[in-house]
Design goal:
The protein contains eleven helices and 13 strands. By secondary structure, it is an alpha/beta fold. The protein folds into two domains: 5-99 and 288-318, NAD(P)-binding Rossmann-like Domain (Rossmann fold), CATH 3.40.50; 101-279, 3-Layer(aba) Sandwich (Rossmann fold), CATH 3.40.50.720. Strand 1 (5-9), helix 1 (18-24) and strand 2 (27-31) form a beta-alpha-beta unit. Helix 1 (18-24) packs parallel to helix 11 and helix 5 (101-116) crosses helix 7. The longest helix has 19 residues, at 290-308. It starts with a strand and ends with a strand.
Length: 321
């Protein structure tokens, strides 16, 4: 078999993939994939295309060079890839749903704990020279007497649930895609039931047309006054303008966002200055273990699919064919 060449989207640090490339004997070609012309130029002569959040639309699948045998998504979310087009062109798409489920769940928990105890607000005011005693610091709810809502009960959501169960009175879950019972969780079929009953809500749902702005002005108004909302999944799930209003008005006591509708977050974004809002730059996926694991699994799966027709780490979003 001739040498396998992996086309990698510009902006992805391939350092972690180099040991796998050396071990398996493939080479890496880094280049821009933004425009159709750039995509064709970068991927020509390559056998695999590896992307993070880079968009692969129907036109790019239509013009995909004949040499390309698969697409490897370095991550979990698939909303940036046109899976219908991939299937129409018999192009396998691999993704990595298990590489960082602990990290993402832990990030959500960290935000919740910081907000519920008022750590974020207290640290900010104390560093600014103020001395704000409780209960003026924050709502500081009694977590053990509160219901926790989990929107999206897949692999990450379940990991989050397992870790949070000892901290709360009850866990209420909402996920139309989950049909089997989850131990210790009361599932509801209506999102409003979760919103009205939970003091803390964490979002772990995928982004798709049906989940676009699933939390908007009406949904936020239904949440209990003084509630906390955290989103570590996809930015498009929340109407950010409505969230700002709910925080500034005091209806929500706090919120945490690791993801945004447009990334990176604009320098002049109001989210950078919104009251009681923790913002982090899409880092929930990372740890010193998860970072290398993602790159190594993504490259290894692409190589093995081309070489043997099988993958060892991730799952197929499309294919195999």
């Amino acid at each position: 078999m001739s040498e396998i060449v992996m086309a990698v989207a510009e902006g992805i640090d391939t350092t972690w993939a180099l040991p796998v490339a050396e071990k398996l004997g493939f080479s890496i070609k880094v280049g821009p994939l933004e425009t159709l012309e750039q995509f064709i130029d970068t991927t020509t002569g390559c056998q695999a295309v590896l992307v993070a959040l880079h968009r692969l639309d129907a036109e790019k699948f239509e013009k995909m060079p004949k040499s390309v045998k698969c697409v490897s998504r370095l991550g979990v979310g698939l909303d940036s890839i046109d899976l219908v087009a991939a299937k129409a062109h018999h192009m396998p798409v691999i993704f990595q749903p298990t590489y960082a489920y602990n990290e993402v769940a832990n990030h959500a928990i960290s935000m919740i704990m910081a907000l519920h105890r008022g750590l974020f607000q207290a640290n900010k005011s104390t560093q600014a020279g103020q001395w704000v005693p409780a209960p003026k610091t924050a709502e500081i709810i009694s977590l053990q007497d509160s219901s926790l809502g989990v929107i999206g009960c897949g692999r990450i959501g379940k990991n989050f649930i397992e870790k949070m169960r000892p901290f709360v009175k009850e866990i209420i879950g909402f996920d139309p895609g989950v049909t089997s019972p989850i131990e210790g969780v009361r599932m509801v079929s209506n999102l409003d039931d979760l919103l009205t009953q939970c003091k803390v809500i964490s979002m772990h749902a995928p982004y798709m047309p049906s989940t676009h702005h699933m939390i908007g002005e009406k949904e936020l108004a239904k949440m209990q006054k003084g509630s906390i909302l955290v989103n570590v999944s996809r930015g498009g799930l929340i109407d950010e303008a409505a969230l700002v209003k709910a925080l500034e008005s005091g209806h929500l006591d706090g919120a945490g966002l690791d993801v945004y509708e447009k990334e990176p977050l604009a320098e002049d974004s109001i989210l950078r200055h919104t009251k009681n809002l923790i913002v982090t730059p899409h880092i929930a996926w990372y740890s010193q273990s998860a970072g290398p694991r993602l790159l190594q699994w993504g490259f290894e799966d692409a190589y093995n699919l081309i070489a043997s027709g099988k993958i060892n780490n991730g799952n197929f979003a499309v294919g195999p064919f």
